[in-house]
Description:
The chain is α/β, with parallel strands linked by helices. Helix content is 31%, strand content 15%. The protein contains 12 helices and 12 strands.
Amino acid sequence: MARWVVGVTDHMMPPLDLEAAALGPEVELDYLDVRREEDLDPARLARLDALLVWSVPVTARSIPHLTRCRLVVRFGVGYDKVDVAALTAAGILFANNPDYGTEEVADHALALILSLQRRLWEHDARARTYTTRWQTNTLSPLRRSSAATVGVVGVGRIGTAMVNRLKPFGYRILGYDPYQPAGHEKAVGYMRVRHLDELLGQADFVTFHCPANRETRGMLDAARLERFKPGAILVNTARGDLLDGLDALEAALRSGRLAAAGLDVLPSEPPQPHPLLDAWRGREEWLAGRLVITPHNAFHSDEAGVEMRRNAAGTVRIFLEDGVLRNRILE
């Protein structure tokens, strides 16, 4: 007979075979299979010892029904839809799942940097119109890697993986992360800067790998984008709400302050109508190859999907069996 009941609100990739194996024989899995918080069944919530969450919000609407629950774990990294303060007030612990997809996000960010540095997307867009001339259609400026500087904002798990990938290309690498201990830059291999604006003023490419929180939400507003080095390239595979909407980004691209941007995340997803996105979808001439958008998939590979599921379920099992909680989030 099962000792514990663990619920799963919703899922990217059912069935729950990987979760069942990771949780072990002493756990009964209850797949709630809902997409909206208001559809969660209070009676089923009341049976749970722990809850695994994918996309459904967990707020004051459902938390009072988690009367037996001791832990909520999100399958992913972000937890904007989880009211951590309300969980804490109810005596329920919360953890996210940051240790999956690290290689994938770093690879994705590097691919965006390299493709935008080499102006591959712009070459592709413009080469469609070339007829009598071909090889003479070069684009400038186009920097050699060893002559360029990359700024990494956030040098945690993914930022460190990013630094390790950048080094063989010969880039000068700057890093900004006030939460890393002294000497971290020496162990990893980058030049540390004390102030973000110092990094922005020097970097030809700026790649963001920081969480969304009170300090970082909306940090990329019009004033901040003006501090980028003229002609720099912005890459964001972290959180969409680092951008203070899309108006300032559009202005920076139109003015040439930013040469290009590569985004895996947007301020709202699926994206709401906006002139910048209209220009991107319409392949407008002024934006040709200068804006690359992928649909929040930087984390994904077949292996990362398995790792995500096993890690989240493993966090629950370790807590239930040993009383040890990894990746705890306090708010």
